[in-house]
Design brief:
mainly alpha; 83% helix; elongated; single chain
């Protein structure tokens, strides 16, 4: 599996794990924090792959790359979806 495929899969896995952690917390499960920790770890994996992909692109200026790096590191759940929907097109299809 190439890194191009790992980015959306890691994001989907992290969102699914986060939803499962929230569900476990709502139902007073035994260990929702373990699932939440896995979701956070998957978010960091997604962020690492996305930043690697972004830094390797020649479609962005240095300023845009640094801005998106900070945004993906600070809020990968919110800006990760925007990255997948909008920015990846700019990286791969221009």
């Amino acid at each position: 599996m190439s890194i191009r495929n790992l980015v959306p899969w890691s994001y989907a896995a992290s969102v699914a794990a986060l939803c499962f952690a929230l569900y476990a917390k709502a139902n007073d499960s035994a260990s929702p924090m373990t699932v939440f920790a896995i979701a956070v770890l998957l978010q960091f994996i997604f962020a690492a792959f996305a930043i690697y992909e972004l830094r390797g692109s020649e479609q962005f200026t240095r300023r845009e790359k640094s801005d998106w790096t900070v945004l993906i590191l600070c809020a990968p759940l919110v800006f990760g979806s925007f990255y997948l929907v909008k920015l990846r097109r700019r990286i791969f299809f221009i």
